[in-house]
Amino acid sequence: MSNSVKDFNAYRSKMNDKILADNNKIIKRIFNLDTNAYTQGALDVKTKELLGLVASAVLRCDDCVKYHLETSYGLGLNKEEVVEALSIATLVGGTIVIPHLRRAYEYWDALESQSESS
Amino acid sequence: MSNSVKDFNAYRSKMNDKILADNNKIIKRIFNLDTNAYTQGALDVKTKELLGLVASAVLRCDDCVKYHLETSYGLGLNKEEVVEALSIATLVGGTIVIPHLRRAYEYWDALESQSESS
Amino acid sequence: MSNSVKDFNAYRSKMNDKILADNNKIIKRIFNLDTNAYTQGALDVKTKELLGLVASAVLRCDDCVKYHLETSYGLGLNKEEVVEALSIATLVGGTIVIPHLRRAYEYWDALESQSESS
Amino acid sequence: MSNSVKDFNAYRSKMNDKILADNNKIIKRIFNLDTNAYTQGALDVKTKELLGLVASAVLRCDDCVKYHLETSYGLGLNKEEVVEALSIATLVGGTIVIPHLRRAYEYWDALESQSESS
Amino acid sequence: MSNSVKDFNAYRSKMNDKILADNNKIIKRIFNLDTNAYTQGALDVKTKELLGLVASAVLRCDDCVKYHLETSYGLGLNKEEVVEALSIATLVGGTIVIPHLRRAYEYWDALESQSESS
Amino acid sequence: MSNSVKDFNAYRSKMNDKILADNNKIIKRIFNLDTNAYTQGALDVKTKELLGLVASAVLRCDDCVKYHLETSYGLGLNKEEVVEALSIATLVGGTIVIPHLRRAYEYWDALESQSESS
Questions:
Q1: Distance between CA D77 and CA D71 in Å, rounded?
Q2: Which helix (H) or strand (E) holds F62?
Q3: Per residue in C20-70, pLDDT tens?
Q4: Cβ density class B49-59: b for 16+ within 10 Å, e for less
Q5: Contact yes or no for B64 and A95 at CB 8 A
Q6: Pairs across A and B, CB distance < 8 A
Q7: CB F74 within 8 Å of CB F112
Q8: I need a surface site. Which of B89, C96, D41, E74 has the fewest CB within 10 A?
Q9: Average pLDDT in the B75-93 region?
Q10: B contacts of D36 (beta carbons < 8 Å)
Q11: Whole-complex ipTM
């Protein structure tokens, strides 16, 4: 199942490279902001990742959810914390968030199984 | 084509089981409400399913549309009624609903062909 | 409080007249479809109004909700039926629908008080 | 300016009371969940309020933003923390969030000025 | 009626100043990008304003629509061009865009009447 | 890679034919409007395609984006113009548009490679 992690990242990297190679100034700066916004500030990086995760979940962007799940996992956030954040997203965003919740659970499992096998 | 019905339901059940096994109280209660909301009340169950279908369609949630199509089909709503509900969704939600309409038609066909072959 | 009903309808009519006077073919036809979509068909008019109401509520369009509340009221749908439809909208659309639910209740009260005073 | 805080809360309370008096089971339980979701759990209450704030901001629900700003203020979150959360919302949700950011700033000012005058 | 133009701009400027005075790096850069994105490039400024207008209309952001209407008006785009852009927004975004169309017409009238009286 | 263009169009045509064969009056008219809205008027067809593209991108409808990319490509719009339109969509709609931007780049590549091989 961990292939889903590798496949997602490979596609994401390949296409981001193509986009950035194009030198559209606005898009490049938005990508740049996207990196800066989640660094340590008044709020710590774990909190910021969860904010990005919840924003992505209520806006129902599966790829964005995957990205923030992976970073959250890497930062050592545990499943209970991540699920609690997703529970707020499901309440605020409604039952239409549930299909994205299913895919989030599947991706978290893939992250865990990839980690175990490495 | 009816495999799409089985596949959808198998994945949905498997992941719902994982989510509910996790015992997050908020998520469990939302799942519980999702069952209760469509039972007979001041409005009959057919009307409620169509309300769930239209809400899902304008919010462009394919899995939610599939779920309500399947329940509508099981309750004996006919295609003309379902399409009329979806026509309101397409008008209110705009042409961005059309790709979801295509997938809704495909799933309805799968429901009908599964039914014939059983 | 019933002035809110009159004010809403007066503004709506005045601006719709301006828009239609402009003769943009696409907009005129969309307005025309908006009238036709809610007429009797495979589904009855009451069901269709509730579908329009729920679509409007989950998409969080206060003016659209008001319009469908008023038509629902005129068709003789009672408050329990309307609230049951709105409860599905709140579940599917999440707690962000709640502020719109408050305004829907306020407008329904205005419709009832206008009716009593006439 | 602090009247905007009182007015918002008075309207919110009045309409919530009307809604809850209606005894629609689904709506009552959603209101109930809305209270429970932000209590201490695997995540602390401050983090949860910020998650609710960001979810509300990207979904562009002014009343929801006001509610979470007020609770955040009451919990002792400072402006820099709140603005950092809102900056993530603006990045993830895009420039359409900016008008809501203006109104969030205005409400935060009202919360501060109310607090000073009391 | 032209006061609505002045009032909108005064509030917008006042709050933008407060936001920018706060020195949140992410928000400042997004504001900066918002200025740069609509300058002459491969596409001319008129086309870009219409793109901003349609994006704002389908996302149903009244303040964003007002802003792009005002800039479009200043660039000499005529009403027929602007309405044609808005007709695409109404078709793609559905009838929930109509209330925003009414307010867009009202603001365009305010822009025209302000211009005549100056 | 150009098969993705053929596959998309084949599925789209097949399902559109099924939908139109159903004779739902509202849906047929919306399909009809969808054709008329992008014809030459006060705005030229290239501008209108870009408006449709940006509306589709901010509403995050991949199939709609593909459709407008293909028509834009057919009308001779170059990549720099299309990307500039998409950069406005990404700014207005936020970083949640980025996954759709990746898929838009992929589809544009498929359009170019199909064209070269024909």
A1: 9
A2: helix F62-74
A3: 999 999 999 999 999 999 999 999 999 999 999 999 999 999 999 999 999
A4: bbbbbbbbbbb
A5: yes
A6: 47
A7: no
A8: E74
A9: 98
A10: 25-26
A11: 0.96
